[in-house]
């Protein structure tokens, strides 16, 4: 992208730029698309490496680069129809080529999102998908800014490099905040953590151990024969909550059902709090408001 934008800057601020530089700048659009797709695959596929077949995608780039060395300045200065047709064809092809790969990359990300539903994504997987969506969105913005410039000069030519600069600063900030440079396709590798979380879910949720008031990270860790650190790590990764919030979340779901169940109307809120595993009414109220943004009594009254 930097080489492509560099051509724009030279063309805008320079005079009588040699055709070879113009064609070289345009030709980089033909390598940006494949590289973007490979990057998306590397971020969503464990151990991805380009193989021989992938490099065939660079053939258009090599062809245009090779052709640029045979162009003569005088040929363009004559302003003949052949030169105009060639230049227009290269521009249209390069921008359609990039658009094709942007769409293809976007569809790849969408496919990964469907195979990894939001409720089952790890923090790393969610980060990768968020990062790739932002990245592709920024590529669309740059593409649009240049296409608008081509179509009847809808925007000044220098807008392309300016948009690119803003995009690069924005992506740098997002990469730093998301720590996306520390993650790769192995975030989507199947590992023992997923199986371990299923085991925790079977014990804590399916068997309703969360209803026990004395349940703790230590007791659950002993049941699955793992360290407390490992248990906490897996719950944070897959439930996206710490252990206490993980337990309280399921307690509150039961409490909500009991508050609305006509068979439990005779029970007080205090009894429901103790029945769902809370050791005090105050802790129940705090947890309920944390997840439902209202008090138990208001929830019961407004439903």
From TrEMBL:
The keyword DNA-binding applies. The chain crosses the membrane at residues 20-39, 51-71, 83-103, 128-148, 154-173. Keywords: DNA-binding, Membrane, Transcription, Transcription regulation, Transmembrane, Transmembrane helix. InterPro entries: Homeodomain-like_sf, HTH_AraC, HTH_AraC-typ_CS. SUPFAM superfamilies: Homeodomain-like (SSF46689). The keyword Glycoprotein does not apply. It holds the Pfam family HTH_18. PROSITE patterns: HTH_ARAC_FAMILY_1, HTH_ARAC_FAMILY_2. Residues 201-302 form the HTH araC/xylS-type domain. SMART domains: HTH_ARAC. This is AraC-like DNA-binding protein.
């Amino acid at each position: 992208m930097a080489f492509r934008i560099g051509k724009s800057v030279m063309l805008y601020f320079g005079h009588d730029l040699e055709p070879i530089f113009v064609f070289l700048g345009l030709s980089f659009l033909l390598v940006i698309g494949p590289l973007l797709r490979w990057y998306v695959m590397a971020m969503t596929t464990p151990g991805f490496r380009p193989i021989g077949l992938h490099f065939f995608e660079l053939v258009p780039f090599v062809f245009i680069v090779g052709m640029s060395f045979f162009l003569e300045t005088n040929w363009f200065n004559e302003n003949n129809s052949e030169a105009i047709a060639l230049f227009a064809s290269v521009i249209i092809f390069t921008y359609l080529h990039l658009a094709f790969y942007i769409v293809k990359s976007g569809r790849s990300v969408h496919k990964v999102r469907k195979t990894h539903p939001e409720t089952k994504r790890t923090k790393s997987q969610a980060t990768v998908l968020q990062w790739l969506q932002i990245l592709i969105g920024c590529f669309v913005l740059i593409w649009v800014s240049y296409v608008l410039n081509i179509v009847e000069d809808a925007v000044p030519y220098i807008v392309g490099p300016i948009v690119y600069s803003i995009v690069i600063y924005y992506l740098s900030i997002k990469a730093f905040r998301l720590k996306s440079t520390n993650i790769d396709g192995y975030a989507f590798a199947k590992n023992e953590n997923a199986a371990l979380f299923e085991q925790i879910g079977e014990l804590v949720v399916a068997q309703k151990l969360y209803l026990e008031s004395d349940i703790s990270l230590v007791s659950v860790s002993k049941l699955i024969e793992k360290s407390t650190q490992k248990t906490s790590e897996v719950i944070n990764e897959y439930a996206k909550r710490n252990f206490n919030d993980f337990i309280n979340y399921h307690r509150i779901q039961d409490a909500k059902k009991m508050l609305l169940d006509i068979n439990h109307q005779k029970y007080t809120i205090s009894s429901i709090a103790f029945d769902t595993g809370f050791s005090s009414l105050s802790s129940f109220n705090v947890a309920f408001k944390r997840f439902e943004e209202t008090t138990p009594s208001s929830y019961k009254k407004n439903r």
